[in-house]
Amino acid sequence: MSRWIAVYQFPLDKDLSELALFIRRHRLPLRLAEEGNRQVLATPDPQLGEFLLPLLERWEAGEIDLARVHLEPVETEGAAKGEDASATAETAPAESGEGGESKADDEIAVPSPLPSWPWRKTPLSLLLIALCFIGFFLLRNDLAESLVIYPDRGGDFQLQNSTLAWHWAKGEYWRLWTPAIVHFSLPHALFNALGIWILGRPLEARAGTLAFAALVLFSAAASNLAQYYWSPQMVFGGMSGVVYALVGGVFVLQRWQPGWRDVPAGIVALAVGWLLLCATGLVTYVLGVGVANAAHFGGFISGLLLTLLYCLAGGARHFSDNTAGNSAAA
């Protein structure tokens, strides 16, 4: 007989009737039992437990209704012969193996590793994604002149005589942030939009739009200033500095709250690796495109610092989840 493995733990006062109905509806090889002062959900299949963990975490946090969740079946042998796979999953009784263990998990599709946050919880992230493409459209139609910081043409850079000071003297303070909107190519807009989708939406949904807006506004200004000071003679644009601030934020939160799994593992390592690779100049040499390395580093550092302050102020509690073997309540 297979050994039952704990998947998730709930407080004794937690009503699990909705979860029990969900298990029965999908014929999942799961069981609920009281152990000590906790209600423990267990399965003989560790892979199934790993697949269901993000779903259970979101249900525990009150973000989803299990009654409205449907696990789509994968193709079975019957489906390969022309039968309706979905009907098979709904009507066929679960086969019983040795010791009464269900084989219904063979018909369960893998849930997505990325949470599907409601739109109302991530309005600013969706706006930023739209602005990536709006900025590209404006640039292609020669309408972005009022959004960028004019380059300095002099040899010795002095802030008081710079074009940025000239913009500020005219009251054009928005130029400190708006270069983040301008994108010089569609792939650049796509990659930044994808970064905000993967990193920004979980951060905004958990921390709230106000805290997320503070991170975006601060990091956009910091990354634009860093790039302007580093290369004042160049026109620059793009939301990569903000994306790298999100990378820095996720880096801090994943170490402050190891149980937080909204962002796939390895994303931060991949982003930091790309940051260092671009800094070597190899990407510019091979692809022939300019990279705003100072904006990337400025955004990353600002994201690290702001998120560290956020965690020290107690904000990390919004990123706390119950996991199997952890008896603390979320």
Automatic annotation (TrEMBL):
Question: Which domain of life does this protein belong to?
Answer: Bacteria
Any coiled-coil regions, as ranges: none
**The Peptidase S54 rhomboid domain, residue ranges:** 171-311
Its top-level enzyme class, in one word, is hydrolase
User: Signal sequence: where?
Assistant: none
Which GO biological process annotations does it have?
A: proteolysis
Read off the InterPro entries from this record. Answer: NRho (IPR031976), NRho_sf (IPR038244), Peptidase_S54_rhomboid_dom (IPR022764), Rhomboid-like_sf (IPR035952), Rhomboid_protease_S54 (IPR050925)
Keywords annotated in UniProt = Hydrolase, Membrane, Protease, Transmembrane, Transmembrane helix
Principal localisation: membrane
Molecular-function annotations in GO: peptidase activity
Record has Membrane as a keyword: yes
Where are stretches of biased composition, namely Low complexity?
85-96
How is it placed in the membrane, per its record?
Multi-pass membrane protein
Compartment(s) where it occurs, according to its Swiss-Prot or TrEMBL record: Membrane
Domain Rhomboid protease N-terminal stretches: 4-66
EC number(s): the record gives 3.4.21.105
Region entry Disordered: which residue ranges?
77-107
- TM ranges: 122-139, 176-198, 210-230, 236-253, 265-288, 294-313
- Similarity field: Belongs to the peptidase S54 family.
User: What's the protein name?
Assistant: Rhomboid family intramembrane serine protease
What organism, scientifically named, is this protein from?
Microbulbifer taiwanensis
